[in-house]
Automatic annotation (TrEMBL):
Signal peptide: none annotated. Pfam families: Na_H_Exchanger. It comes from Sphaerosporella brunnea. This is Cation/H+ exchanger. It is a multi-pass membrane protein. InterPro entries: Cation/H_exchanger_TM, Na+/H+_antiporter_fungi, Na+/solute_symporter_sf. GO terms for cellular component: plasma membrane. The chain crosses the membrane at residues 6-27, 34-52, 72-93, 211-232, 252-285, 306-325, 331-353, 365-384, 404-429. The keyword Endoplasmic reticulum does not apply.
Amino acid sequence: MSLLQPTDFNIVCAVLGGFVSLFGLVSYFIKERLFLSEALIALLVGIGLGPHGANLIRPLDYASGSPERVDAITLAFTRLVLGVQLVLAGVQLPKMYLFHQRRSLGVLLGPAMLLKWGVSSVLVRLLVPGAGWITALATAACITPTDPILANNIVKGQFADAHIPPRLQQLITAESGANDGLGYPFLFAALHTLKYVAIGPGGARAAAAQWLGETVCYVVLLSVVYGAAVGWVAKELLHFAEKRKLVDRESFLVFAIALALLIVGTCGMLGSDDVLACFVAGNIFTLDDWFRLETMDDSLQPTVDMLLNMSVFLWFGAACPWRTFARIPTARLLLLAAAVILLRRPPVVLALRRWIPNVQSTREALFAGYFGPIGVSAIFYLLLTQEFLGDLERHAGVEELRHLITPVVWMCVITSVVVHGITIPFIMLGNAVPDSIGIVRFPSWNVRRRQQRRTAKASGGEENALLNADDDEEAAAGTAGYGAVAVRG
């Protein structure tokens, strides 16, 4: 028996541990000096170590040579990462945030999502050869939601602290968390149309009944009720245990992550929307702000979150089905990905800006519109689609959708990770070069507030002006005192 044991498990552990260790040694420099996202680095390393690179990470071997098993592993991985991420996103939002910001979120989760779905559908229909409207609608539904993991990379760190007001950070976090679960109605509107109208039997009435009864009521509304109930019960139980000194600090800190695992598992067994349930549970769990304030200075939750995020993008880089990209001309695929990033969201947010109170200028609308990345949630919906198609009988519409949706969604995800991952470094480069070069600068939010202070002081009304500015920030953030703390800090 050979002493050397280069098994798949040993290689994966070595690769993951080595990558995380090496990245950790220079993580501050990469994220806070170069302003590169950990998702971008992990994706590139996954590509380099995957089957088309060093071949150290071999997803197909782990799945016994079955592409379907690779998809099943990836789907489970995305559910786990999204569940943990969305519970933590809900926990990190201020007290009663969804209620206080219902108007802004209502616009972003209603008309804005509908318009993003429509714009993306038109782009897919026009730029993908052979794509019919059902294929375009289903594909667009996968890339409509804003990814909470990539969005989280944008609204945290030195760049966000300096350039993005807290109300905008919180709005992007809340919207990306909520709209992930709300992608179900858009996706299954197209899939049920394919199943009952294009294939039959049943027709439009059966498709509408199935969509309303199964997707909207059972999958979406049940997940909201279930997430709220679990979040409320968990909050009360943790309060009870903490008051009676029954829970130690370690268990207290990991409670939200355990809650995410519980919801992902139980919702998965029920066949409901575990992604939306996790976000709702996180918000209800911190309805009184107690848990958020108790864990604000703790690093356990962000650490677990970072490990999961880096792992999933490392896996994406290795598991990406590159050969499927040959199904669509490369120029059209790249053009589509670029058009989706530029047209799917920025014009929509800009057009609806006046009805979104937390977006207070055209510049903020362009920023919030541009930074609506496509990531883990798109792969999640893609694999749900493939799973749904596997239960349908052979049909031209089914084969068309199965053939085209994979390269389009994966290309949009990779392009978004790369483009959004390098945008902030280019912005900071623009801030660093002399004005004479003519690069557009991205103004600092803190600098603008200091300028307001100087202007107010010069006019003799500094105290009132500062109080009014802080009150406005508090109202926008939906939490007492938060704006004042953020500005004065």
